[in-house]
């Protein structure tokens, strides 16, 4: 089997006179033993010959793994996690969806790099992962913690492919309890709560509530709704786009799931839309399609070409509504006004590039269960209570599969009322 150990402090051959090996010029300098001669394996030096950290043990391991085609030089795993992510892993990522790219980058640079980035890749073990998880659980929700764990695992897996690690410390983890994403269980609002929140809003944005409850639209779909999307004759809304934030810029994009849909709506909602347009006509808004980055090819230029739509709802100063701005300036103030969340607290934040200068901002309590999505849950609740088929409700909500709708809204479905028993009786009694 290839490979040998060289003692660099003593000559290879004994003295012909004394019969003993002589000291070399390297005596007492550097590490004494060098393992060499294994094809594809870089030479490595050791201070000791015996023991688990000695040259003999490493030679045996390297020979075995080299023969099996599994050898990974431990020195390649000594790169810092931060450096590996920035220099190797991230530059090779290629996301078709810039929104996905922004999400992954945010998770990695917010929840992984600041806490584990200074460790060498092969030094991250169960102990370090446990400390990181404890920090993560105290600063992020279980869903975010679970996503961050999965991204870290993907980074380690890439390091294995790059022959920097032999195993993924996130895999087959029996010691640590990894956070799991909590099951989605939607809660509908009462009509009284819906109307109270709507009334507490600026009149300009009250139609958002009608569209959320009356058509089950997501907030981005509400902000991207144009006059051409309303079929007043057929009493339906065509959900064909949304307004998305990619980085700091807005774009038009397909609804979530990359598919359009039609939603039947009541006359009441159509009348509310007409009333809103009579007070505030639709405005032309132009945004890039799907990706705000400058195109690199002619094809990308065609795919990202700006689109113009006559939006029913726009920001107070014109242009498309930004979801984060709507959340902090319209939605949460309305929630606080009716007592769903506490009043905001004042916080001082430093002003960028102006040392020692601060501004006062109002910070509202996080309340995911009372986000705009609660209106969508209310829409689903009303439809299911009316015994609309789960497949139809799933289609109106834009879910990829009815099983998703069932998992989220099964608890809202009415109990059986004996109609099946009557149907069976009629079946038996029919000629």
Structural notes for this entry:
With 431 residues, this protein is an alpha+beta fold. Among the domains are: 68 residues, no CATH class; 84 residues, DNA polymerase, domain 1; 131 residues, no CATH class. 40% of the residues lie in helices and 12% in strands. It contains 15 helices and twelve strands. A three-stranded antiparallel β-sheet has the order 1-2-3, covered by helices on one side. Strands 4-5-8 form a three-stranded antiparallel β-sheet. Strands 6-7 form a two-stranded antiparallel ribbon.
Output the keywords.
431 residues, 3-stranded antiparallel sheet, single chain, 12 strands, alpha+beta, DNA polymerase, domain 1
Spatial strand sequence of the major β-sheet: 1-2-3
User: Percentage of helical residues?
Assistant: 40-55%
Distance between the termini: 86 Å
The percent range for strand residues is 5-15%
The main β sheet shows up as: 3 strands, antiparallel
- Choose one word for the global shape: elongated
- Low-confidence stretches at least 5 residues in length (pLDDT < 50)? none
Give the helix tally: 15
- Average pLDDT number: 87
Strand/helix succession: EEEHHHHHHHHEEEEEHEHEHEEHHHH
DSSP E strands, number? 12
The assigned structural class equals alpha+beta
Radius of gyration: 32 Å
Topology at a glance:
Layout lengths: L3 E4 L25 E4 L7 E3 L8 H14 L12 H9 L8 H19 L9 H14 L2 H20 L29 H9 L6 H10 L3 H5 L6 E2 L4 E4 L2 E5 L2 E5 L7 E4 L2 H13 L3 E5 L10 H6 L3 E5 L11 H15 L7 E6 L7 E6 L9 H13 L4 H8 L4 H8 L9 H11 L2
Antiparallel strand pairs: 1-2, 2-3, 4-5, 5-8, 6-7, 9-10, 11-12
């Amino acid at each position: 089997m290839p490979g040998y150990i060289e003692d660099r402090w003593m000559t290879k051959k004994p003295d012909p006179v004394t019969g003993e090996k002589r000291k070399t010029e390297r005596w007492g300098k550097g590490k004494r033993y060098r393992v060499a001669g294994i094809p594809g394996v870089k030479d490595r030096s050791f201070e000791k010959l015996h023991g688990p950290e000695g040259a003999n043990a490493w030679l045996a391991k390297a020979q075995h793994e080299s023969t099996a085609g599994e050898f990974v030089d431990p020195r390649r795993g000594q790169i810092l996690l931060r450096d590996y992510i920035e220099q190797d892993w991230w530059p090779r990522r290629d996301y078709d969806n810039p929104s996905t790219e922004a999400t992954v980058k945010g998770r990695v640079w917010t929840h992984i790099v600041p806490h584990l980035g200074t460790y060498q890749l092969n030094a991250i073990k169960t102990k370090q992962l446990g400390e990181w998880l404890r920090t993560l659980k105290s600063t992020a929700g279980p869903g975010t913690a679970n996503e961050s764990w999965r991204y870290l695992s993907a980074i380690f897996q890439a390091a294995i492919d790059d022959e920097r690690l032999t195993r993924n410390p996130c895999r087959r983890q029996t010691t640590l309890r990894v956070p799991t994403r909590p099951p989605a269980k939607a809660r509908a609002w009462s009509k009284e709560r819906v109307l109270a929140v709507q009334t507490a809003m600026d009149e300009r944005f009250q139609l958002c509530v009608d569209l959320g409850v009356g058509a089950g639209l997501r907030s981005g779909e509400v902000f991207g709704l144009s006059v051409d999307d309303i079929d007043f004759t057929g009493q339906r809304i065509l959900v064909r786009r949304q307004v998305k934030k990619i980085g700091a810029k807005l774009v038009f994009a397909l609804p979530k799931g990359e598919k359009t849909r039609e939603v039947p709506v009541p006359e009441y909602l159509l009348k509310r839309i007409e009333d809103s347009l009579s007070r505030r006509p639709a405005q032309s808004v132009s945004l890039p399609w799907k990706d705000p980055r400058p195109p690199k090819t002619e094809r990308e230029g065609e795919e990202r070409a700006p689109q113009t739509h006559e939006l029913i709802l726009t920001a107070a100063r014109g242009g498309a509504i930004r979801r984060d701005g709507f959340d902090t300036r319209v939605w949460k103030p309305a929630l606080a006004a009716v007592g769903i969340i506490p009043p905001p607290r004042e916080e001082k934040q430093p002003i960028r590039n102006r040392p020692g200068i601060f501004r006062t901002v109002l910070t509202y309590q996080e309340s995911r269960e009372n986000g705009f999505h609660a209106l969508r849950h209310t829409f689903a609740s009303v439809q299911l209570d009316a015994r609309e088929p789960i497949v139809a409700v799933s289609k109106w909500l834009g879910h990829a599969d009815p099983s998703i709708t069932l998992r989220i809204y099964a608890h809202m479905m009415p109990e059986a009322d004996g109609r099946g028993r009557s149907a069976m009786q009629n079946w038996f009694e029919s000629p």
